Amino acid sequence: MDNKTILKQLKLQAALMELHDENSFKIRGYQNAVFNLDKTDLDLGSLSLAELEKIDGVGKSIATNINEINQRGISSALEEYLKNTPEGIVELLDMKGIGPKKIKVLWKELGIESGHELKEAANSGLVAKLKGFGEKTQQTIINALEFKEANAHKLHFAEAEKLAEIVIAEMLKITPDIKIEVTGALRRKMEVIEVIDLIVATDDIETIEDALDDAENFEQVIEESGPITWRGTYKELRIPIQLSFCEKEDFVKEQFLRTGSNLHLSLEVKDKLTLKDIVRQQNFASEKEIYAAAGLGEIVPEMREGTFEIEAAKNGKLPELVEMKDLKGILHNHSTYSDGKHSLEQMAQHCKDLGYEYLGICDHSKSAFYANGLKEDRVIQQQEEIDRLNEKLAPFKIFKGIESDILYDGQLDYTDDVLASFDFIVASVHSVLNMNIEKATQRLLTAIENPYTTILGHPTGRLLLRREGYPIDHKMVIDHCAKHNVVIEINANPWRLDLDWRWVHYALEQGVKLAINPDAHEMDGYQHMVYGLLAGRKGGLTADMTFNALSAEEIGKYFAERKQKIAANV
Ligand SMILES: [Zn+2]
Ligand SMILES: [Zn+2]
Fold first, then answer.
1. How many A from CA of 333 to the centre of ligand 2?
2. What interhelical angle do 474-484 and 437-449 show, nearest 10?
3. Residue ranges of the Helix-hairpin-helix DNA-binding motif class domain (predicted)?
């Protein structure tokens, strides 16, 4: 069995143990083991019972569970817990913001056994009356359930993009004589995708439809399909597939019409005409020609949102967007010093191997105890190791950073002399996420005013499809960053993409630079850079305004000058 599946089962078991009031010492041991196994490089599926028992922190009982999962797909302990828990309760366990202890109360005291029942109870006010719940928790539950319902069939971009490739390959296998590409929100690189939208050019729709009928992986939903549109599912994917058929000579036009947002296509571009009008006038050989006929430069698919790009194109001010090759280094990454999977040296070596000039290491700070945040002595230890590695890996450079927790009142969590020991600081919120917009905004403003803050990390803390971010006044936050010369992060993790691309253009207008940061917790995490890049491009990000497009020398100078300024002002 693969590690991911094993860990998923172990995590579920830990939650069920809590739900069923097992001994708290036993639960703690279990949770710690799962936390450690999450970071292991061992292939758990290939180990014998004896080998499993030898892993640090894995006792006899966990080793037995893993061994059983390897042998029969599930452990007997988990089977036993599942037998004694209603299915709906198991589903509720992955609801954000409500732990197993509270779910147990809901189950035992109100007899709730499903999300549907819980929503009814919460809406009627019953939940708030339970001991230890109250109005606020009740509202949290309602929000979490509504959020879950609304997102049940959506995917984040990175996953949707991969699935689209699989579906395209399969389509080409069953009907080789077609041209097929992505379109819609997927082609615009939207952060959340509701449908895998594909355009298919063919001279023979009937043959394709017959092939799809025969293909066992495709399942049509007849009621939602039409004469030139096939809608349905692929294998057991949760997300719907849409295939729009067109004739080969109409491919450019049809893909164009299905790619741009409605606003992009219906804004006036020339002589009272919209792009929609222009594209229907004649056949074009390329999208570039369509824009040329409108008197505009070509607008890349990811920018076709109808926000600022038409105006920019009309004025001949389309930005030259940042590209992967412009990115010179990677800031905001974790190592085994806090909650990362790979050592500082592994993270640095891999970054260097990928061709980057520098790595900014930003392990968690001391308040993030749950993530093994660094106390002062370990900060010193890490910085000494960085000095050694910088000699060894030169000219590659590791910059000494930290992801400093923004405390509830906006303060950073080290004293000034410790803060002064870093080259740069990413300030991020990780706790007390339920503030109202005034408080949450003020908290960020205070952190931005701190002279040691170099970069504001993931500004809203959102996890796409999992939890909404805390509410903030984006304008005030961006304006404050402009005033205090603080860079804003576009966290490139596909679950975050925070700063949201919708605010990129405004930030650029205020002169705020953006850093594309993967927040990598393992070497493979660097692969997320591309998603942050796409989010930046959606908002018109240029290389000039991308902080980590600076070379190692330039960014080193920037950090040094900033530090001098702080020292002069203290
Ligand atoms: Zn963070
Ligand atoms: Zn981080």
1. 6
2. 10
3. 50-69, 90-109, 125-144
